[in-house]
């Protein structure tokens, strides 16, 4: 993939960090932000804004501007409340839900009514609280799949975390009314193609199919109905970014080889449904990273791709696993001790674009963001 195309995709994904966007505007542009892991979802906002705080994102969530619900591919996403009727009309599917309910021994013709009655008027409930209200009709994961069935009927979404645990809430209680799905499928498909391309262009119907969970045929119909115009590749430079696990920049297209060398695929996708946070340089995945508390550890794939010494202020090289481990006091830590971070030069992180930010600033942004919420 040409550098210009990668740069266009980074810009479409807001990874050039345009100023002034609030959480709701960001989600509306991106269409959906994968959110089965809430801390990763919050860090996806951070990767796209130098100023958003955890409190602002949670305010948008608590005020119902953005909603956490089962969306594309049947996976939990943050979506804008105004997009729920048409987007969920296309992506909702109860086949897997009914199968899993049967496996969990949750059966009966009254299941939608059962979960509707259990949720209505109760406010956000944890799984344990909802299990108690169901009085033995469902337990454990059966409760979650029962809520997913309610979501298929427009009756349920997820509420904010309670004590770090997910909650489930009746849609009418949370949004003012059950979700009324868009009945005009062609209109919804056209909107999907327009909005998907706004956040993912350049892209193909096959990419839309992979992202949405719709068939390739449906995705091609969406493109035809929307008649998308050619995309201008001219865009902002890439620079360096720390993107979280399950970031839309990784999940938004069918083929990841343009941004991830096949030699390093297992380092990002180790298996078992796991996906590691990644280091991006001009739109290419050059390593992974992790955090423990406020300590951020960078793990470049190759020593030659490690953050430059000026960027982290260290006077000597470290091995791959130790390079760029930055603790709560803003110091790079290694087996040989720690050194204070210095100023980052314009080359920081090896970026070939015009973004003068380096890894030191990027790590500092992550730490500042994490410090805004003890839950992260």
Any overview of this molecule?
This protein has 376 residues and is α+β, with helices and mostly antiparallel strands. It has 17 helices and 13 strands. The strands form 3 sheets. Strands 7-8-9-10-11-12-13 form a 7-stranded antiparallel β-sheet. Strands 1-3-2 form a 3-stranded antiparallel β-sheet. A 3-stranded antiparallel β-sheet has the order 4-6-5. A hairpin with a 2-residue loop joins strand 8 and strand 9. The two termini are 35 Å apart. The model is unreliable at 309-323 and 326-355 (pLDDT under 50).
Structural class, from helix and strand content? alpha+beta
Hey, roughly how much beta strand do the residues contain?
A: 15-25%
Low-confidence stretches: 309-323, 326-355
Q: Helix and strand succession?
A: HHEHHEEHHHEHHEEHHHHEHHEEEHEEEH
| Main sheet specs | 7 strands, antiparallel
How far apart, in Å, are the first and last alpha carbons?
A: 35 Å
Radius of gyration: 22 Å
Q: With helices defined by DSSP (H or I, 4 residues minimum), what is the helix count?
A: 17
Mean pLDDT: 85
> What is the number of strand segments?
13
- What gross morphology would you assign? globular
- What topology, given as strand order, has the largest sheet? 7-8-9-10-11-12-13
Quick take:
Helix content is 39%, strand content 16%. With 376 residues, it is an alpha+beta fold.
Which terms summarize this structure?
376 residues; alpha+beta; 3-stranded antiparallel sheet; 17 helices; globular
Write the layout of secondary structure elements.
Blueprint: H1 3-12, H2 23-30, E1 33-34, H3 38-47, H4 54-62, E2 66-70, E3 76-80, H5 84-91, H6 95-103, H7 111-119, E4 125-126, H8 127-133, H9 141-152, E5 156-162, E6 165-170, H10 171-175, H11 185-200, H12 205-212, H13 216-226, E7 240-243, H14 248-251, H15 265-268, E8 278-281, E9 284-292, E10 295-300, H16 309-312, E11 325-326, E12 331-334, E13 337-340, H17 359-370
Antiparallel strand pairs: 1-3, 2-3, 4-6, 5-6, 7-8, 8-9, 9-10, 10-11, 11-12, 12-13
